[in-house]
Every structure is written in C-alpha cells, then in structure tokens.
Amino acid sequence: MTHDLLIELGLEELPASWLPAATRAFGDALAAALAEARLEVAGPVTTWSTPRRLAVQMAGVAERQADREEVLTGPPVSAAFNADGTPTSAATGFAKRNGVDVSALERIEVPEKKGAYLAVRVQHQGRATLEVLPAVLATTLRAMPFPKQMRWDALLDDGRGELQFGRPIRWLVFLFGDEVVPFTIQRSAQAAGPLVQPVVSGRTTRGHRVHETVGQPLVVHSTTEYLAALARNGVVLDRDERRARIDAELTAEAARRGVSIDTVRSGAALLQEVPDLIEYPVVVSGRFSDEFLALPEEVLTTTMIHHQHFFPLQYADGTLMPAFLAVLNTEPESTNVVSRNLERVLTARLRDARFFWDADRAQPLAAGLDALETVLFHKRLGTYREKASRIEALARWLCAEVLGAPQLADAAATAGRLCKVDLATSMVRELTELQGTMGGIYAREDGHSSTVWKAIYHHYLPQGVEADAPPSAAVLGEAARPWAAVAMADKLDTLVGMFAVGERPTGSRDPHGLRRAAQGLVRTLVDLEALTGVGTAVTLGPLVAVAARPFAAGGVGDPSGDADLWRFLVERLRYVLEQRGYDVRNVRAVTHGDPGALAPAAALRRLAVLATVADSADFRQLATLFKRVRNIVAKNAPEGMAALHAAGAPLESILTEEAERALWTQFQQCAPGIAAAAAGGDRLQEAFERCARLGPAVGRFFDDVMVMCDDPTLRMARLRLVFSIEQLVLQLADVSEIVSQE
After folding, report:
1. Distance (Å, rounded) from C-alpha 701 to C-alpha 658?
2. Cα–Cα distance for residue pair 357/427, rounded to 1 Å
3. Looking at 29-43, 244-258, 433-447, which range is the least confident one?
4. Does residue 439 sit in the same domain as residue 477?
5. Crossing angle (nearest 10°) for helices 658-680 and 684-704
6. Which end of the chain lies in a sparser environment, N or C, as judged by fewer CB atoms within 10 Å?
7. From the CB of residue 714, how many other CB atoms can be counted at a distance below 10 Å?
8. Torsion over CA of 597, 598, 599 and 603, rounded to 10 degrees?
9. Which domain holds residue 328?
C-alpha cells in the first residue's frame, strides 16, 4: 500500500529572491533522500511556498522500503580450497561470519580483481517507512541550499550536530497518511539563540498572521484538509495562483484608473517578485502630486519599484501618470485609509528625491570630480578619481584605435572622465540603483551631446549573462562606439586592476563583482559587431595589455601575463556563449588556443556556422581524426615546426604514397579559401564545408600511410603535412573538441 507524505516547514520570513529556488530545492532534495532510502514514490511531487512556509507533498509513497539483496565477496577460490577440494580456513571463516554453510557459498567472477571469488547473497528486508522518514527529513534539511546559511542553535538527532538553515524553523507538519512522523529539532544547550523551545513535528499548521481564526488551531489529517484549512485562514498557498490573482487585480485597478494593463509592465520584474512577498494579495491604488513629475522618470520609477514595491502607471503615450498600484498582504478594513497612508509614505520619499535633485543640480556634473578623491575604489588601486582618469585614457584609445572612430574619441574620453562622478551625488547615495543612470541624466541636463550622456547613462551595461542586455544600436545611435569604449574601459580597469593586486574570485566569494565585470566585458565584445558595426577582429590581448599599463607604470603590477586572469576571461566567454544555447563542445572548439588572440565576436560567428555543419558525416570523421592529428603533432613535431615547414622543400617533391599526395593536393585547394574566410569572417559556411571535405582524405592518409617511418626525410615531410592540416583547421576551430570524450 501507499500513502501521501506531507511536510510543511513553518519559517521566519524568507527573502523573496530565495523563495523560488528554495521551493524547487525542497522537492528535489526530498525526492533524492527518498530514493536514497529505497522508498518508492508512485505519484507526482507537488511543492508550495509562501514567505513563511515551504511545503511538499509526495503522492503514493510505499509503506515499506524495497527489499535489498547484497552480494558479499569473500576470499579468492584459489585460496578457499585445498588441492583435494576441502575448504580452507579462509572459506570456513567467511561462511561462519555470514551465518551460512560453506556449501551455500557461490563462486562469482570479479573482473576488477581478475579472478573467481567466493560470495554470499544476503537479503535485507525493508524497514517500515515511518521508521525511515525521520532520517529522510534530516537528510533533506541538510541538503537545502541557501545563499546564506543561518546559525540558529538547532540540533538534529542524527549524529551530525548543528543544523544551519536559511531561516529558523518555527513549526513542522510531518504526516505520512494520517500518522504524524516523529521528528524533533532541539535547541543547542550551550547557546542562547532564537530556538527557545524544541520544534516537534505534528499536524498543526498556522494561517495568515492577520486573517487566521484566532484561538483555533489548524489541525489537519491530510493534504486535502491542509489546503482547505490554509485557504480558510487567509493563505493562498500556490504561487501561480497568487501571481494570477495579482495580475487580475492589477488589470482591474489599472482599468479603473483609465489605463490598460500594458502600462503596468514597467514593473514586470516587480511582478515576478511580489508573489514571493505575500500570502494573501490585495491590490490598491494611490496618487502623488503632479509637481513630482518634474523629476526624471528614472527617479520616480526607482523610488516606487525598488523602494516601495509599487507599480507605476503610464498614459497611453508612455509618460508617467501621477498614480501607482500597490499589492498588500492583507484585506484592509478601509481601502481609502490604506491608500492615503501609502501616498504619504511615497510623498515623503519623493520630497527627499526632489531635495537631492535640486542639491545635485546646483553645480555641473564635472564640478564633482574633486569629490571622487574622497571615494575609495581599492586601497591599493586608489580613489575613483584615479579610476576615472584611467577610464578616460583607455576609453579614448578604445574608441579611436579599436573601434575605428577617432572622431568620437574626445566624446568617449569625456564620458569616461565623468562616468563615476554620480557616485558622489546625493541622489545616488540615496538611490544606489541609479549609478551611471543619474550621471547620464545630469550630463544631459548640463548640455553634453548625446554621444557623451548616453555613454555615461548606459556604461554599466551589460551587467551579466542573465541581467540587463546591452542597449540596442537604435537606442544608442551615434553614441554606440563611445558607449562601448567607456563600458569596456570601466570593466577592463576593474578586472586588470583587481588581478594586479591579487584580488581573485573564488567558488563562493566574489566581493568585487569580477564575474559580473568579466561577463559584461565579453558580452559587449561578443555583440560588438551588431552594436557598432565593428568587432570581429577585436581580440582580448591588446585590450588587457593597454589596460594593464597604468598599473605596471605605478608599480602595482602587470597582470597581462597572469595565467589566472586569462583562464578567468576564457571561462567567462565560454559561459556567455553556452548561455546562448550553444553546445559546450562547440563552444570549446571555437575558443581554443592563445586566449589573447581570441576575438569574441568572431567566435560567435564561427559558433553559429559550426552548429550547422558539426553533425555531417564528413565533419564528424574529420573531428575524430583531428584528435589523432593533434596528438601526432604534439608528440613528434620538433620545436619551431612552422619555420621548418616554411623553409623545407616542396612537399610534392618528397611525398610518395598516393594517399598522402592526394591529401596534400586537397589541402592546397582548400587552404586559400579557409584562410581568407578565417581572417575576414566572410564565407564561413563555405570554409567549414571545405574543411569537412578534408575528412575522407585524412582518413585514407592514416589508413595507408605510416607517418613515423624510418626514412628521416620522408618522416619529416609527413609530419609537415600533418602539421599543415592542423594549422589550417585550427584557423576555424579545434574540431577535435566536438567529439565526445569516451
């Protein structure tokens, strides 16, 4: 027989950003723990969550563990019997230890030990599920990942001591069928933490703090009763239902204000977050004074969305209305009273914002440069004033020399010099989310050209792989190249500088945001051609070398030769490309070789083409054989092989076998087109197809020809031929990477 398993963890409020991952992890960890305990589950897994609870139902859990047969291996047969066939002490001792007669022992072959051994089969009867479930829950709780684990002086009786968790557990529903599974979370004897009383499993849950029926414990005997009890007591347990209810009420309230739901979408990210902040959603609306519409829209929306969790409303033309929507966690007695209170809170914040705006606008943005002397970037890398000077010089060089826009170099330099000034403004000190954005707005108000203020406004973008995308070419216009120059200069300066002073991210720590900076840099480079019209030939090496010069000149260090930095950049580039859905093997194929010679935009173009040809039979054959090509060159080619090949006699005058001469002929036919396509990025499809056509010729060469023959002249000629094939194919990709490692 089977029964449903229901577990609810009652918690102190979890952060909204943790809740989706924690909900999935709870179900996954429990399923894994049940499987490890040999408990079969016939039905689906259902998870629910609110800020105060994580819950999971496993339908159709077996009443007992599955029986298990264990094969115990004993002595080798050769040592278990004498010449006359009588058992030795090794055989009799093994039988006695396992409670069987020698005649019951089996002989089995053990491949890893290369021989026959005595063995006994032991049957283990499964235990009752109720006996096993406490250990299952303990394993589940310890397996739960959180961004930060909280020590709250809790002990589990599983021999592993303290339990750390995202937030303290306050109650526990633990039902198998209709029975309570015994489980206790004890308080640590030596610590005075938040767990004052032990948490003992039971069948009593808790409703909404405001809406639950006071004085009546919510006692449940099944999942059906559990869901019904919470629904009666103000808890919408299912996140999708909360989201749908919020969406519907936002639509209705927006319509009452005379706007469509589309105008609420400026708060789309907030719509993903709000369901994880509440248990019982109710939408109300409010207004603020028209006078605050004189503030930049970015200030208004940031104040409403990030600080108050309000949804801004817009007119049909996209301009802001002096109104907002808010999602409450309770049904108010008077909607009007609640709306007025929310309006007062927002008005106070907007008055502060207007004060900061007026104070900052009392002087031009450039006047704040000196204030950056008081803002430390890093104790060994100086202040943000020094960083701004480095960004200015690097952005000028990038715009003129790398992006081919010397006429815009002054604009890029100006944007680079001013891009960090807003860190010293009152507005950014209060609304830190507006770094860069406010600098661009203030530059625009000061009368700077769009090429300058847009470069400042967007220079933090892109911020990562899943985060905000780069601004589009249409949005940037003429500012595209200055923006790219400033955005890359800022991130390069951070990366190179931090590696110069030994600051490196680890698996669990990245306090300086170097992964974000590296991903933003390589994303800009990957998309550079689409954004600016240039980029396929932009390689990493010169960028890092020029960015490192100020640090080398200042005695900080020169990380341009730091293998860790290059490995880090290549890893981030591969991650960015993999996140776009490309096969990991193909990504590695186009990002091989010298990291400094990598051109991210060119890698993206090659990757797109490689994905279309990688599964053809000829290309798969070439990829498989290319492993052999690379191994032969690595093991047998002498130092300076490129120079030896260039200075050697023509191969057609040395090669003798038909297969090798045919390969050399086909190489000569393919090489010019492949080299031209690799250098210019055009006709890549044709180049990869030409490459694929080498596959059969290479296969025939290896079938018919011995490369490492006795004749030294012929051996060198054949090595030169293999080396030529390797270098030709590597101009496009290391295709050996696309073959699975088996």
Report:
1. 9
2. 6
3. 244-258
4. yes
5. 160
6. C
7. 18
8. 140
9. 239-360
pTM (2 decimals)? 0.83
The answer to whether position 366 is within a domain reads: no
Nearest by Cα to 460 from 430, 439, 429, 431: 439
Percent of the chain with pLDDT over 90: 68
User: Which whole number is the average pLDDT over 142-158?
Assistant: 88
| Final residue of a structural domain among 107, 124, 141 | 124
- The answer on 331 and 254 residing in a single domain is yes
DSSP H or E run through 404: none
**662 within some domain:** yes
The Cα 426–Cα 432 span in angstroms is 10
Tokens of 41: 């589950």
- CA angle at 562 for the pair 560 and 564, rounded to the nearest 5°: 130
d(CA 52, CA 13): 5
- Give CA–CA dist 282/286, Å, rounded: 14
Q: Are residues 31 and 132 in the same domain?
A: yes
Percent of the chain with pLDDT over 70: 96
Quick one: pLDDT band at residue 692, thresholds 50, 70, 90? confident
Which pLDDT score, from 0 to 100, does residue 742 have?
43
84 pLDDT more than 80: yes
Residue 335, token pair as written in the block: 């909607």
Average pLDDT over residues 475-491: 94
Give yes or no: residues 329 and 295 share one domain: yes
| Tokens standing for residue 247 | 């969406």
Q: Distance between CA atoms of 100 and 91, rounded to whole angstroms?
A: 11
CA distance 126 to 210: 46
At which of 605, 630, 652 does a domain end? 605
Torsions phi, psi of 239, nearest 5? -60, -40
- The predicted pLDDT at position 239 comes to 96
Question: In sequence order, which residues have a C-beta less than 8 Å from that of residue 567 and are 6 or more positions away?
Answer: 595
pLDDT digits (tens, 9 = 90+) for 314-343: 888 888 899 999 999 999 989 999 999 999
Q: Helix (H, G, I), strand (E, B), or coil: what is residue 669? A: helix
The DSSP result for 673-700, as a single string, is HHHHHHHH--SHHHHHHHHHHHHHHHHH
Among 55-69, 102-116, 283-297, name the one with the lowest average pLDDT. Answer: 102-116
Greatest C-alpha distance within the chain: 108
Residue 368 located in a structural domain: no
Q: Which residues are registered as beta bridge partners of 5?
A: 58, 176
Say how many domains are in the chain: 5
**Angle between the 563-578 and 540-553 helix axes, to the nearest 10 degrees?**
140
With contact defined as beta carbons under 8 Å apart, do 384 and 423 qualify? yes
What amino acid is encoded at 15 in this protein?
Answer: P
